[in-house]
């Protein structure tokens, strides 16, 4: 059990691999630059008003329809998809339909999950169902999912069919993960194994697909694609473990989220379930507090002051939930990087996939 | 303009082609028998509780989870999909994955549309969102859509990729149609052309896909598939025109719906928009009444007695909306049957596709 007294603001993962920040920024920017114009063109195929609702969701226009330059996210998936094509010896461009299809599925799930979860904010903006109503959130989500199949299958190649099949499998896992998330909301106790399985479905599956889809489109065999997918799956789990740390101890200035964000939402994230699974007085005290919290209305809970959340965060840390999750991020990072050793790759691609894995665990937003 | 005084209970379409009822019943039963076991097995792939929610939606279990034998619909699409395979000279079984995929997409759209439209009943039962909540309706709809892609793409053939592409195109039209339906709800006037376009998207596209998907899986070329799709599109428009007639003048005992069902829901269906588009005193009086209705709350509207709906139905008929829609059903039927002449088909298949088209226009439920 940890008795560490690390404060918020410090890096959440003690591991500091040699990440060349400028290199990773360039990789992410390249993925974004290749993907965004195609994504915009595909979304523009939607009939009004679905095209505008989608453009609002992606942060391209505001609620009044004026062009904006909203935060469009880290773009890890597009970077992975174009690298994935190069992993198979194909040009980066061969991965672009895969990158676009994965982004479409990711955003389809955001639109529907925000509505199912009643989340009113995403990336500092009102969610689609808040602005355009529940029906548009459902409908435009459906339309993005359909567009994802369209952009792959219209390529008309055998490879595109295989890519579409992998994307469908990943989407089914995404849906399984959301089903688990909804079920766990109503449960008092969730095990670490259940939490990891849910995160594997919700985050791992689509990151895994991003990492293999470019290679599949570029003509890679199943073994290569499966190994890249394994890298992506563990990368996704590392990514989510770090997200769960940032959700409690992240610097609000960097993450753009409220302090103690996941605690405010009573999320049963990894640090929480790991702390509850531990033995000892901090774990028992935490369990007692959270059981009492569960009985409170959202309004009562909102009235909590900073100290009350800080007390819960301190108990999670004392019970070892923070350390366990940091170690889990490092374990998943190591497993991801090890998978890369099992597949023949151009050396530059291997170095870039490794750099992306390093970035995922040291990022602060 | 018609001044006919036909009563409810009479056939809604004056045309009576030589339909061999027993033969059509056998065709529908064959499609159902080939499709249902595979559909059930595919739905059983869903993780709990999605499998039960889907089974409830399909009418296989009741809200308490007990097996039931609820009305599972007419099963026109499965019958078309297996006939479609035979149209390409393949065995009926080759069309089954297509039939299942089309049924999955159809039911995905029902789950989401019922929630978007706030419909509380379907086939005499509470809708999924009423019984299991909006989140499950969204999630299980998504899951059925994903399963549709899965069952086709796991075949792993070039033909399956082409079939999946056609299904995706049809799904996009389905979504376009629902977007139009939602938009028209808030408009005072909808033109006949707009109504026909919406019905082509909401009903024509998936029926068209059902009619070509078996042939595509059976190895047909694009020209054959396109011609079959044209037959299916016009069949779908004929089907919907008849549905719109049954929605006002159908016999409640046969349809299982309330009297004046579409009028109670203030649907801008074909007979209504055709009547409003006509000239003359009945059309103007109808427009006046419907404009006043639009200002009423649902509760006020529910208090209407039979006579008030009967008066509206009589005005629609006097303004020619009923006759125009009957003629439209016959026009679409004739165009569908004419398309069949443009393609080489085994004679039995041609006869059966013709019999199904005849059935669609004379059916009373």
Number of helices of chain A: 17
Indicate the multimeric state: homodimer
Domain tally of chain A:
1
Total beta-strand segments of chain A? 2
**What proportion of the residues of chain A form beta strands (DSSP E)?**
under 5%
Q: Give the overall shape of chain A.
A: globular
Helical amount of chain A: over 70%
Please report the first level of CATH classification, the CATH class of chain A: Mainly Alpha
Q: Write down the Rg of chain A.
A: 20 Å
How would a crystallographer describe the biggest sheet of chain A? 2 strands, antiparallel
Strand order of the largest sheet of chain A: 1-2
Within the CATH hierarchy, at the fold level, what is the topology of chain A?
A: Farnesyl Diphosphate Synthase
Looking at this structure, what is the CATH superfamily of chain A? Farnesyl Diphosphate Synthase
Structural category of chain A = mainly alpha
| CATH architecture identity of chain A | Orthogonal Bundle
Topology of chain A as a string of helices (H) and strands (E): HHHHEEHHHHHHHHHHHHH
Overall residue-averaged pLDDT value of chain A: 92
The N- and C-terminal alpha carbons of chain A lie at a distance of 27 Å
Weakly predicted, low-confidence segments of chain A? 1-10, 13-18
Biggest interface: chains and residue counts? A-B, 39 and 39 residues
InterPro entries (chains A, B): Isoprenoid_synthase_dom_sf, Polyprenyl_synt, Polyprenyl_synt_CS
Family (chains A, B): Belongs to the FPP/GGPP synthase family.
Keywords (chains A, B): Magnesium, Metal-binding, Transferase
Protein name (chains A, B): Polyprenyl synthetase family protein
